[in-house]
Amino acid sequence: MPRLLHAFQMSVSSFTDIISNLKPDLLIYDAFQPWAAKIASSMKIPAIHFATTGAAAYSFFYHRFTVKDSAFPYPTLYLKDYDRKALQASISKLEKDENDKDSLFGYFDLSYGIVLMKTCRGIEGKYVDYLSVMCKKKVVPVGPLVSQSYDGENDSEIVDWLSKKPQFSTVFISFGSENYLSKDQMQEIAKGLELCNVNFIWVVRSPVGERIDINEVMPKGFLDRAKERGIIVKGWAPQAKILAHKSVGAFVSHCGMSSTIESFYFGVPVVAVPLKLDQPLNARLLVEAGVGIEVARDEDGIFRRDEFADAIKKVMVEPSGEKLRLRAMESSEKMKNEEEEDMNGAAEQILQVFMKYKQQT
Questions:
Q1: Which H, E and C letters describe 249-281, residue by residue?
Q2: Which residue ranges make up each domain of the chain?
Q3: What φ, ψ does residue 230 adopt, rounded to 5°?
Q4: At what angle do helices 121-135 and 55-66 cross, to 10 degrees?
Q5: What pLDDT score was predicted for residue 308?
Q6: pTM, whole model, 2 decimals?
């Protein structure tokens, strides 16, 4: 992420030239390029912010930094002690540095008229409304924006393997593209999978520049014992295709916003293991919606094999799983039914903003 941000910052001069030549009627920018709005404004081009973090997390943090003398009005969203510890360095810096605080929410202020957000009113409606009040701009959901178009080289192998498994019998485990578990936590997952004895697809990633030897990080003999029940994918897996498959019954996730939306969209209950940033709040959003449960952890945020296995069983084996699955399917249907309406509504809002800007200039 730091490299990406640095690359964006280095592109300011080129971006200015591009905008000057193209002269677009309107610009849409995200949190990685807040400077884009200032450049557009200097050229009398309206700019609208597109937020990819969800309304629940945004409203929680917006409240945290702007309304310090009152509690967040939705108590089902909260941070546990170990979440706070993970965030403390960033929070302390933001509280001390006004410039950083501006950079956190400044792109809301720079957005002309509205803020677009990758979410759906059906799952975050009250948070969309609360955030609109706080940022004094209408927050407009654009829908889930879920894509299944990318085909990877191992897609067919994974899908073929899944197709041989019974309905709802398989757990998909993935912690996103920028989260890496310690060897100890990976071993706890492996041992937890043996305790609950379910089929699984487990995506294992390593930091850029590092190689991970699966045989070294897994418990001795695990790969042989589990070879009939599971597969381990190194690097990348077709997440949307996997979640859409009828054999998948649970999604063990870090609860990044894209993964959270995909779990809702495909109707797959979530076993939440949030790690940082907005992920704990997304996890509690899933629990609040009745489509997820969170793995129990100790005061340092460490989970053990027993707690991990218990969470899997609650979704995959015990009667509670049927209730979670039914609620997940209902949420999926609702999101898909509203998808076109959200997108059309966003397009109409963008057009209105553009027309208003033209009338004023």
A1: EEEEECCCHHHHHHHHHHCCCEEECCCCCCHHH
A2: 2-146+337-360, 155-334
A3: -150, 165
A4: 20
A5: 97
A6: 0.91
